[in-house]
Write a structure and sequence with these properties.
Four copies of one chain form a homotetramer. With 338 residues, chain A is α/β, with parallel strands linked by helices. Chain A is globular, with a radius of gyration of 20 Å. The first copy, chain A, has twelve helices and 15 strands. In chain A, helix 5 runs antiparallel to helix 12. Chains in contact: A-B, A-C, A-D, B-C, B-D, C-D. Chains C and D meet through strand 7, strand 8, strand 9 and strand 10 of C and strand 7, strand 8, strand 9 and strand 10 of D.
Amino acid sequence: MNPSINLGIIGAGRIGRLHAANLCQRVPGAKVVMVTDALAASAESCAAQLGIPAHGTDYQAVLNRPDIQAVVICSPTDTHTGIIQAAAAAGKHVFCEKPIDVDLGRIDLAIAAVRKAGIVFQVGFNRRFDPNFQRVRTAVASGEIGTPHQVHIISRDPSPPPIEYVRVSGGIFLDMTIHDFDMAQFLVDSPIVEVFATGDVRVDPAIGEAGDLDTVVVLLKYANGATAVIENCRQAAYGYDQRVEVFGSAGAIRIDNNYPNNAILSTREWVRRDLPHHFFLTRYTESYIAEMQAFLEAIRHGRRSPVSGEDGRIPVVIAMAARRSLQTNRPVRLSEIG
Amino acid sequence: MNPSINLGIIGAGRIGRLHAANLCQRVPGAKVVMVTDALAASAESCAAQLGIPAHGTDYQAVLNRPDIQAVVICSPTDTHTGIIQAAAAAGKHVFCEKPIDVDLGRIDLAIAAVRKAGIVFQVGFNRRFDPNFQRVRTAVASGEIGTPHQVHIISRDPSPPPIEYVRVSGGIFLDMTIHDFDMAQFLVDSPIVEVFATGDVRVDPAIGEAGDLDTVVVLLKYANGATAVIENCRQAAYGYDQRVEVFGSAGAIRIDNNYPNNAILSTREWVRRDLPHHFFLTRYTESYIAEMQAFLEAIRHGRRSPVSGEDGRIPVVIAMAARRSLQTNRPVRLSEIG
Amino acid sequence: MNPSINLGIIGAGRIGRLHAANLCQRVPGAKVVMVTDALAASAESCAAQLGIPAHGTDYQAVLNRPDIQAVVICSPTDTHTGIIQAAAAAGKHVFCEKPIDVDLGRIDLAIAAVRKAGIVFQVGFNRRFDPNFQRVRTAVASGEIGTPHQVHIISRDPSPPPIEYVRVSGGIFLDMTIHDFDMAQFLVDSPIVEVFATGDVRVDPAIGEAGDLDTVVVLLKYANGATAVIENCRQAAYGYDQRVEVFGSAGAIRIDNNYPNNAILSTREWVRRDLPHHFFLTRYTESYIAEMQAFLEAIRHGRRSPVSGEDGRIPVVIAMAARRSLQTNRPVRLSEIG
Amino acid sequence: MNPSINLGIIGAGRIGRLHAANLCQRVPGAKVVMVTDALAASAESCAAQLGIPAHGTDYQAVLNRPDIQAVVICSPTDTHTGIIQAAAAAGKHVFCEKPIDVDLGRIDLAIAAVRKAGIVFQVGFNRRFDPNFQRVRTAVASGEIGTPHQVHIISRDPSPPPIEYVRVSGGIFLDMTIHDFDMAQFLVDSPIVEVFATGDVRVDPAIGEAGDLDTVVVLLKYANGATAVIENCRQAAYGYDQRVEVFGSAGAIRIDNNYPNNAILSTREWVRRDLPHHFFLTRYTESYIAEMQAFLEAIRHGRRSPVSGEDGRIPVVIAMAARRSLQTNRPVRLSEIG
């Protein structure tokens, strides 16, 4: 059996609890020894529920413990880079939820701190660890479909987040499409260089009043001339819609949604099946576990994580370009952003 | 049994012979009494093969026959509007292959002539008559998927046409994407108002040398704020790729390719099925028959055809906007074109 | 163009009209010159509807015409062998609907007459000409799935026939399962040697009162040790259910039902598609045309038809064995039947 | 958090280790405190690998520990009933792998002991906990498909077990089909009353020399007149093949195999996907976890387990009837067995 790795969770909101539960119950070799949250009650209830021995409100307490080797940062986005730098200084390996930050300067400081400390650093793009998306990447990387020409990413949520969340989310591109920007870059081995974005408020006028969009289409160009199209919507009646298709010179590969079962029911009126998974936590159960396993493996073997700080920076740049494209109704080069 | 309608075929190339064969063998109530082609041998062999009683090189011979009620124009595009006007003057109903023309002025003259003569006029957008595309339209029109938000059209050929054809084709937008522009307009009941096009030469450098592209992505905006994305490629390794998906406020509908059989074969290595239909004639066999039946029905009942001259004009305008968008790398409003 | 073959239709009921319409409108090279039916009105209306020049009540009138080369027998089953023998004597090629007869002695006389006359003789097992079933046969015959071990045939009707028909049908095995017995023999190249049948009245008690069953399962053994299972029901809520799966040493092949379209609709409640074809005429449109083309080709090239009299005898023997198995609740060897 | 339940594992072979690993790593609230195996090395390595604090060779050591509430019996079949009785006497809840035994007298003694002790007893029919099979059961139980008429179960292994295992397995019906007998009974709420079995040696002659079959078809009749057909083979080239279809008066429901991913790859030659899961441990990962959760829940809430001793007895009776049917080539009533 692998020696256990002691971890601290920083931030005990929805995603923090998810990672904590996985690390406690489904990732052998992980030991969560402390959880902190700015809200004392939140840290406490998380610790109680999962049997985590220590909790607190100050993440510095985690960094101060010499027995903790790694931290999982799930606090609000604007606190990420500060914690990353402190954790790097304390020599802790870092798993950080996406996005690293919404400011490129701060992202660069964090990446520099990570490099200097020589720690393992991984960004939470969990979809990369899903067997379906991995199969697509393998097909592209191995040449099964030849040279990729056209990528098509569909990504729709079952329902929009609360309007208070929308207001501080940084906008749909940084909050939602960022996963798809990462996917577009993950699937094709050529830098994305240009973005054209268009969008509308079609689901809920309140989202528009909050200054955001809920339905967008983004067209990306890779340096090698390939294109990617991303279709997003904050609300799909039938549930969580996450599909990808890559078309290349020798063929194409596509993946469908995941379903709670594969039963086909034939009735007097329709041939039908149950809806796909409705919620991202159910849909991506296994990929959240797999990304933590990968993080622990990287620590154990002293190797680079599969989603580096540099990987985490790219989608932020694309999101910024998408925002500018939308505002100006013209294609925007990534080189304009920085 | 319905009384027969006498027809003349003008142009005995590939598509002309297809229509002639369907009208002779698979469309009850149609009687092809003459075929003409600028190439005498072509008209003659078509007549011989199908048992058409008369043939010639001058389409005027068809128009001069009082027993002929309708003509099917399959001659080269640049001859279309001239023949349409002559046929209208002769009081013949007209079925014309797409595109009507590549010049909007000439298209408008043809449409005016059609209106003045009060004849039935139908443009050859056969895909509208395919059961799959019709099911999508029904779903959209009936509200089964609510308000449409995002349309996605995939349209790829099994292999590029001969390079001599590419040179005179008018470019990929007018030759190939035009079907998809029509489909985008057919599926959603709101005018298309803006186009952003991007493209590349990825299949064959000779196509680029001929001044054309072989791989394009076009983003369309409807007046109602919905979007459509079209992905085209002149070559798909796996055959003829024709799919559509429409996403709306209450759901989504998508169609797959058509296959010669639906057998699933499980072997030591893969679970697999035979390739989809490779060729448009095989794929759209039934829709070519159905469009002719619709044309004859319109004549019999004196009603407007399901694909009018105005319908045929729209995709030409969009194709022109797409070309301009590509040249300028910016979105182009259809109102800029005319 | 192939020279036309002149045909006479004997029997203008539902299936007779179907063949007549196909031969008139969709099979190039066929010319229906006469139709007869014991019911004068039936022959007359069929002739009028399809423009067949002659009609009558006596099939002998067809056999007497020297310009007629072939006949299509669609009269009641108990008249088949008499007409076959008369047609053979008159030197007419014969297409006969299934079953040839329900008496093996009469079948053997008819086969002997056919052989003596040297005519082309084909039995109406149209499913053999369906692209899906053909793909399965190809997979088995070519070794794609290795040695076949287990065949599974599902065959269910959308609704039971009228009870008056049930009374004279000869029972479900001779009327309905006979298609599946033929399919079982068609797919695997080894004689069927034993039958075990079980069944029940589950759809309509009136069927039981008429001395028949409506829901049966039949287990067949081939000489080579492989097995086939047939599941029949007179009523499937979702329509016409016709599927096959063959499992062999190197893999398996299965086919699904045919659908009027392949659209997938995702809604708030289900992911669903329209029902499969409901009616055998719609489901097997193309196979009815293909079997006639095959019949004409056999005549033209003077070769054996793809469904010989011997082929047509086998399913009758199996049906008899199935009936005896059901009555005795034990497996019955075909050698017990004759 | 639920209070932990202390468990002992009896038998550390493949399936014992599987349950041990699940209980240690993936079933919150379970605590494996001891493992025994007749082979000391096996118990020891299992304990070491999973961090189980105690191990031994005598299962009595488990039963003697007052802190252990439940045992998981994974020892050879012929030891099951002895251990069950001892465990019941010791007041331990019992999870026992299938089959309980191959002797009905011993099974009845074990069931009596369980009843007397009032313990929770569960048999290891894990497939009942699979989401696909559960969806089928729900459809049947809820009336979604009306009255069930015909059940079809396909169950094929990727490759036969070692020949030494075959020799002591009790025969294919008791070793392999037993899962399907349980499934047939699980899906339809009416007792199975008659069995007709047929089979052959088609995969490996050595299996025949060992007195067993490798390819069987079994036809079951329910008391309510419905039927079930089971198709088994010890070797499917494409992997683990586990499918079910139930046809009823109002519709039908069917489930497909499970796949490691749902990617569809279109190439020059085929449209294809990766093979289904090859191995039962991978295919049924989640159902093994779910059955243990159900066992723990039954203990916690003092309720009857979802797979009782009586449930475990039925498939053994059916297997015996199937064996007799095969030997006598006639249908066998379950009432003949006992």
